[in-house]
Design brief:
about 45% helix, WH_DNA-bd_sf, Arc Repressor Mutant, subunit A, eight-stranded mixed sheet, D-Maltodextrin-Binding Protein, domain 2, DNA binding, DNA-binding, WH-like_DNA-bd_sf, transcription, rod-shaped, 10 helices, alpha+beta, about 25% strand
Length: about 300
């Protein structure tokens, strides 16, 4: 039996007018008549009686109307449940632009999956702030973690503050030099090279690719978001780096025993911003992610 024939029967039974029923169903009257006759043929009895006073339901038609309504209600419930179950099986992908390593977001992903089912955080790391904002605007990112100073057109959903730390090789001469110079300086957390020039750090750069400096003259050697490469260069080449404090959680224990981590008073205010269009089924995920990353 075609469900659409039952729907047509119910509309005609409620209006008792072929013209009005046809308009509601966006059908021609002959097409509606064909559906009703087809249903009557399947049921083996007449549903309507047409006479001088108009269209009326037969006794059989009246009973069938009640059953048809019940049947369609159950059918809609069944269809809704099937659609809901099928959505639960679909893996949702939340595209995120950020500076922090995958290690940090695995914690969030596990929490989201535990609460909301099949969700994958698709990370795009190492992007500049400008690239992240651009991708948000064209819909290729859903969420991004960026410095507040860079947010002009997008309103942050959450804000938080990130401290920066220096990472040195343990027992490096640079550690004592760092502490000595900063204890004397009015402006803390600067290193001074042999020429007396203070190191200048673009704090925003420390959020996407992390600066690695040479130990001898404090020149910028490279920028990278590969934490393992940074660790190798610090422990084997005597360099040092300036990174967000939460990066420490991504450093393997093996390296932690070889490092000296110095906290600074440098801070960066960050915002979690969303793209202009996020699918409805991802809004809850984006809200949960925003809250979790701000409190990680």
């Amino acid at each position: 039996m075609d469900i659409r024939n039952l729907e047509a029967f119910i509309v005609l039974a409620e209006t008792l007018n072929y013209h009005k029923a046809s308009e509601k169903l966006y059908l021609s009257q002959p097409a509606l008549t064909k559906k009703i006759h087809g249903l009557e043929g399947i049921l083996g009895a007449s549903l309507f009686r047409r006479g001088p006073s108009g269209t009326r339901l037969t006794d059989f038609g009246q009973k069938t109307l009640e059953n048809a309504r019940k049947f369609l209600t159950h059918y809609e419930q069944f269809k809704s449940q099937v659609q809901s179950d099928s959505k639960k099986e679909i893996v949702r992908h939340l595209y995120i632009g950020s500076c922090f390593p995958t290690h940090n977001y695995l914690q969030i992903e596990r929490q989201l999956a535990g609460k909301k089912g099949n969700i994958v955080l698709a990370l795009m790391t190492g992007l500049s702030v400008e690239q992240q904002i651009s991708l948000l605007n064209v819909g290729m990112l859903h969420v991004a973690v960026v410095p507040l100073v860079a947010v002009t057109q997008l309103e942050p959903k959450k804000t938080f503050t990130e401290k920066l730390v220096y990472i040195f090789r343990k027992r490096s001469q640079l550690v004592s030099k760092f502490r000595a110079e900063n204890s004397k300086s009015e402006h803390k957390n600067f290193l001074i090279n042999s020429s007396g020039k203070k190191e200048v750090i673009d704090l925003n750069d420390c959020l996407n690719v992390f600066p690695v400096y040479t130990g001898d003259n404090m020149n910028l050697l490279l920028k990278t978001n590969d934490i393992m490469l940074i660790m190798e260069m610090i422990t084997k080449n005597g360099t040092y780096a300036c990174v967000p404090k939460r990066m420490i959680a991504a450093i393997p224990d093996y390296y932690m025993n070889l490092l000296e981590i110095i906290e600074t008073d440098k801070k960066i205010d960050l915002g979690v911003v969303w793209g202009k269009s996020i699918d409805d089924d991802l809004v809850d995920d984006a809200e949960s992610f925003s809250a979790l990353v701000a409190n990680l």
